Structures are given as C-alpha cells and as structure tokens.
C-alpha cells in the first residue's frame, strides 16, 4: 500500500520512522513514486526517481542499505546538515504564494517556470539590522535610478492619479546601490560585481544574507556575483518588466523589507519583449497586468525571499505593476471586499502626495495588498554551482 506521507511532509520530518515509510515506497517503485507527486516540477521527477534508483542499487548488496537510503532521502528533501545538491522541489509555499494574474478570478498556478518563495526568511531582529545597514549604504553609495527625462515621462503616465503635476513628478522615485556599472555618475559599491565580486567587502548584515542563502538546504548555488539594494518611497513601487543581466548568474534572490508587494512574472516572446512591455498603457497595466491570463503574480509579504531560476530567471521578465488607486478599486465594484480594504482610509488625505494610498492586487482585484509607504529590496545574485 502506498505511503500516505507526502514528499512535503517527508521534507520536514525529522524522525526516522516517517522517512523509512517513504523509503519503502521509493524502493518498490521509485520512478512511479516521483512521477505521481505534485511537489516536483515535471523536469525533475524522472531525474529524482532515477537518481534514487541508482543510489539504492549501488547500496542494495550492503547490509547498511536501509540506513544509507534514509540518509540519502533526508539529504534530498533538505533534512540534516548536508548542503543541497539541487534546489528544493516546488511545494506548499509556491501553492500559497503564486497565482495567475486574471483580474477577476483566483486561479492556482499549474506550471511553475522556476519561482520559489521562502516566507519569513529573516527574523525581525535580523531584518531591522539589515535595514539600518542598507540605509547607511544608500546614504554613501546611493543614486537616483530615475533621470529627469524619465521622471517627466513616468509622471505623465500617472495622470489618472488624483495629484497635481508637480506631486506626480515627486512621486516617481527609486534609489539604488550596486557593484555593477550602470552610470558614469554612480558610486560603485565596494563589493564589486561578477567575477570580481569580493565577499570580504560586504558589510556584516548583508553578508549574513549571502551565507544564509548559500547554507540553505533549499537552494543549490555557486559563488555570489552581485548585491543590489533598491529603495522606494511614497508607495511608488513601479518596476517595468525586465530580465536581469546574464552576467549576474543563474540564480536571482529578491528579499522584501519594510513592506510587501506583488511581483509579477510575464513571459517574453517574439511578439512581446521587454520594450513592448514598457510601451503599454500604464493605467491598463495597473488594472489588468501586462498579459492577463499568462502573467504570474507572486505574493511577497515583508521578510519573504523570492528565488528565480531556470526559465523564470532567463526567459520570463519580472516587474511590479504601477499600483491601483482607491478610485480604480471603486470602479471595479468589489462590494464588501472593497469596503474592508478601504477601512481607515483618510478621504481628505487621498488627494495629497503623502496620503495617496496605493494597492497591489494578487491574482485578481479581489485580493488587495495595501502598500507601505517605503520598501527596500535586497537582490542577491549567484552563479550556478561548478
């Protein structure tokens, strides 16, 4: 009889009995076991089954085979202290945080291109120290990532916001620190970039994040190649869809601090590439996304970590929609859901720069996420393991 212990449960189980029950099923028919589980993405299922079959076959003549099998299984699912040799399979965190962006319905994702979410990746204490360190770094090395020309263009695209023109210009903002060269006027971060990345130049709180990712049994990464810090204020989180430079490496991690948001993955093709994403009507994007029904919304609460690898890293763009205003939500006519989200909103303040509330929506406009006034994101990039 097939074991009722799921792969997700086995991953977190520390007792040998639970692992042994799963082991019995795997020994009987490893490829079939992995093929029927939803916790592995399709490309990894057969590989995992074959890997188990091969490992057990080599040990089957040894009296310690069951013990060895349990040890191998524990390592495969991230148990113990063994460093992972593969990214963890997709599981309950992705089921809870990823949705198709359809605006009106709430559809669970069926195919994951390579996005993993780790909620509460940091403790509150570590996050506070990291924010303080990031602010100090921004004060020294930070630069505006928005030119005056871009500010005018972006402000002009936000005419539907209930603000005067000058306030719209002031709304557009983003400060940035990176070791990657991007502009003649920038101050490069001391840790460098790519092959020249220097871990010993990374301040302690940031270095702890790097080490936590490298030591995690959930990820399999090589050397760090970049750290970028982005800071946004006034709830202006807009991020046009883009693919990070290939030289960053095969693994991109995005850590959310101070406020959560909804990151959207949108596919690229011959008919929809990054430049066309940017040319789309801003209000329409805010309300329906770039490619409704194909885009993937990732709910990223504060302290959560998003990992992009495979197609999600190289062939899908990632971005953040401009955000929706109270009037846009009202136009959608959400009834009771809207009234719950609007509770506590100062009706007099919404027409001021500091009081303008902006919301993200996740999967559909029925799932609103109010933005905080400020967000810091830490982007760490790693090579694939050698």
TrEMBL record:
Gene Ontology cellular-component terms listed: mitochondrial matrix
Superkingdom, taxonomy of origin: Eukaryota
Official protein name in the record: Uncharacterized protein
A single GO BP: fatty acid metabolic process
Annotated signal peptide: none
